[in-house]
Design a protein that fits this description.
It is globular, with a radius of gyration of 17 Å. The chain is α/β, with parallel strands linked by helices. Helix content is 41%, strand content 23%.
Length: 194
């Protein structure tokens, strides 16, 4: 099965590569422009990893299907305000092995606001959605305030992704870091000890 950690690794690696190749990716866009950009990005990510990707208009944003890797349900919402009433219930109503919810906070709210959102999501899951999923990934990025033309920059620093995995209903949670970062830290620690 396609795990939350594997999904996050694939997403993070593609996002950082894309940003390195195209410095203007996500820069000074209106929310509709960024939504289109990131939805295309996610669709490409799914197809690259062997999934059949279907965009859903009335239920969730995207649904990925692969006979071996399983299914992934995705919801993307720029503002975290409506995720508890709108996006979370939509995701929980869909049968999938992995559920992914992506949202953003202002860059000056990072990382304390993602922690608060994560705690609220955990309460909602424990209250209403225990046993509704195998793994649920909450991914929170950053955005700047809008300028006078209603444009903003998403992910000024591509490393500012907050990722938390919920599993076993919602009894357990883990903060995820990219696997490449874990390996680098382990190698550095081993090197220092020798």
């Amino acid at each position: 099965m396609y795990t939350a950690q594997k999904w996050f690794d694939d997403f993070y690696n593609k996002f950082t590569r894309t940003r390195q190749q195209n410095k203007s990716f996500g820069v000074e866009l209106k929310r509709e422009e960024y939504t289109r950009l990131i939805m295309n990005f996610l669709e490409d990510l799914g197809k690259h990893n062997g999934f059949k990707v279907k965009r859903e208009r009335l239920t969730i944003d995207q649904f990925w299907r692969n006979e071996v890797k399983g299914t992934v349900a995705l919801e993307h919402e720029i503002s975290p305000r409506g995720i508890y009433k709108n996006e979370l219930p939509k995701l929980m109503d869909i049968q999938s092995h992995l559920k992914v919810l992506i949202t953003y906070v202002y860059n000056y709210q990072f990382p304390w606001e993602p922690n608060l959102i994560s705690e609220k999501i955990e309460k909602e899951i424990n209250l209403r959605y225990v046993d509704s999923f195998k793994e649920f990934l909450l991914l929170i990025g950053t955005t700047t305030r809008r300028d006078d033309q209603d444009r903003r920059t998403f992910m000024e620093r591509e490393s500012d992704w907050f990722a938390r995995k919920f599993y076993v209903g919602a009894v357990k949670t883990d903060i995820l870091v990219p696997s490449s970062s874990r390996r680098a830290r382990k190698a550095w620690k081993t090197r220092k000890e020798k």
